[in-house]
Specification:
Elements: E1 33-38, E2 46-51, E3 54-57, H1 58-64, H2 69-77, H3 84-89, H4 91-105, H5 112-115, E4 119-121, E5 125-128, E6 136-139, H6 143-153, E7 169-171, E8 177-179, E9 182-185, E10 188-191, E11 200-203, E12 207-208, E13 211-217, E14 236-243, E15 246-247, H7 248-254, E16 268-270, E17 275-276, E18 284-285, H8 303-308, E19 310-311, E20 314-320, H9 322-326, E21 332-338, H10 346-354, E22 365-367, H11 382-385, E23 393-394, E24 400-401, E25 409-416, E26 424-434
Parallel strand pairs: 6-22, 8-16, 9-26
Antiparallel strand pairs: 1-2, 1-5, 2-3, 3-4, 6-7, 10-11, 12-15, 13-14, 13-22, 14-16, 14-17, 18-19, 20-21, 20-25, 23-24, 25-26
Helix pairs in contact: 2-4
Length: 438
């Protein structure tokens, strides 16, 4: 696990003035990565690093010879249309570039005049998915979500007996993952209406979001090998926000016996910025398992994972209806929770994924599964917030929602903050529902 170093000093200030605001998602202590170009241009997409309301253009950094040695090689590998070559280099290279950027962007740095022309305002760019995602696995790490949803689908047996023993996951569809701003038509498929004996075909009537974190794999492993739990985080490049859109009525009909299919494969939206595990080091917390629950099998157990395997990442979801958008009203908050409540950690997900010799590759994406907290208002989906659609939510403008309607946009935000540490943000991920193609 990454230890605290000079880049985490809460007192650091940047010569990029916007990075020093107390509410800024991207202070000098963060320095997350994305792939961007100027909006509406024919420029090549290339890697960049957020600082305040600006982006450090890594292709420009390379061209101007700002860095030397390992940091220069790392910047070159991150300056192309995907971050996969940079991810492949591993933690030493990631850390070297982050340290070089931190020193160059600090107030009083002699690199300011050389680096300033490499800045591009975030307000002038568009983003793409930051890595080629070869494979996507979605986990189910929130026991609170699993229990609540299980109770709706299986009232007599809400939590299946394997849940407390094994990190549950399924393989999703990588081709439909897009970056924030994604709009997609309402999914269609088969559903089984209540009391009916025959399914019908048509648009989903119970479209939902799922509040998740995405975990980008950095260095992979050879097929037939496994990644031990104490080495797992060295194979993780960083985290993003993830919305795993879900058609609940399609899901209820199709998920047995093999799990989600059309109910999940139509769209997944991720935030453009990947926050490195190194940046998140100040927000590690103890991972605990109730004493009365089964304790992890040896390959999922570790003293380091117990001591600091969890992360206190605060997560929020909001909705913006078409009516709210037309009236110029701000999105309405629906819920807020923390990743610290997860039943399984990132290290346990990676260790379990590879224990049978599965080979992860740079750029692979792992979803955390819906992150819901222990109280009803911390639920990470409408399915839970409305108790299966039985209790509609009343929005500030008087509109109600049980599930998403056409024109609705879902906004998710994430951040970390605590006394003595700089606030680290993830930005936001936004996606909008369009009418079905019928």
């Amino acid at each position: 696990m990454t230890r605290l170093n000079e880049t985490h000093d809460a007192g650091l200030q940047s010569w990029v003035a916007s990075a020093n605001a107390a509410s800024c998602d991207f202070p000098i202590q963060n320095l997350p990565f994305a792939v961007f170009r100027r909006a509406g241009s024919n420029e090549a997409f290339r890697g960049g690093v957020a600082i305040g309301d600006q982006i450090v253009d890594l292709a420009a950094v390379q061209a101007r010879g700002v860095f030397t040695g390992e940091a220069a090689a790392a910047a070159a590998s991150a300056s192309g249309p995907t971050l996969n070559p940079f991810m492949t280099l591993g933690p030493a290279a990631w850390s070297a570039l982050r340290l070089a950027l931190s020193r160059a962007l600090r107030a009083g740095s002699p690199a300011e005049q050389t680096l300033r022309p490499c800045l591009v305002p975030q307000s002038e760019v568009e983003y793409t998915v930051p890595a080629h995602i070869g494979d996507y696995t979605d986990f189910y790490t929130s026991i609170h979500h699993a229990t609540s949803v299980g109770r709706l689908f299986r009232p007599d047996n809400p939590l299946l007996p394997n849940y407390k023993w094994v990190p549950i996951g399924y393989h999703g569809r990588a081709s439909s993952i897009e970056v924030s701003g994604q709009s997609f038509p309402r999914p269609v498929g088969q559903t089984l209406p209540a009391g009916a004996a025959t399914p019908v075909f048509g648009p989903s009537k119970r479209l939902d979001y799922e509040l998740e974190l995405g975990v980008f794999v950095g260095t992979g492993n050879e097929r037939g090998s496994r990644i031990g739990i104490d080495e797992a985080e060295a194979h993780v490049f960083g985290l993003c926000l993830l919305n795993d859109w879900s058609a609940r009525d399609l899901q209820a009909w199709e998920y047995q016996p093999l799990g989600p299919f059309l109910s999940k494969n139509f769209a997944t939206t991720i935030s453009p910025w990947i926050v490195t595990l190194e940046a998140l080091a100040p927000f590690r917390v103890e991972w605990t398992r109730p004493a009365e629950d089964p304790q992890p099998l040896p390959y999922l157990e570790s003293g380091a994972n117990r001591a600091k395997g969890a992360l206190d990442i605060r997560l929020q979801v909001l909705v913006e209806t078409a009516q709210m958008r037309e009236a110029g009203q701000a999105p309405a908050p629906l819920s807020q929770t923390s990743f610290r409540h997860a039943y399984w950690t990132i290290a346990q997900m990676v260790a379990h994924h590879t224990v049978n010799g599965c080979n992860l590759q740079p750029g692979d994406l792992l979803g955390s599964g819906t992150e819901s907290g222990p109280t009803p208002e911390e639920a990470g989906s409408l399915l839970e917030l409305t108790f299966g659609g039985k209790q509609p939510l009343v929005l500030p403008n008087g509109q109600t929602r049980t599930f998403l309607e056409d024109g609705d946009a879902v906004v998710m935000r994430g951040w970390c903050e605590k006394p003595g540490a700089a606030r680290i943000g993830f930005g936001e991920v936004v996606g909008r529902v369009l009418p079905a193609l019928v």
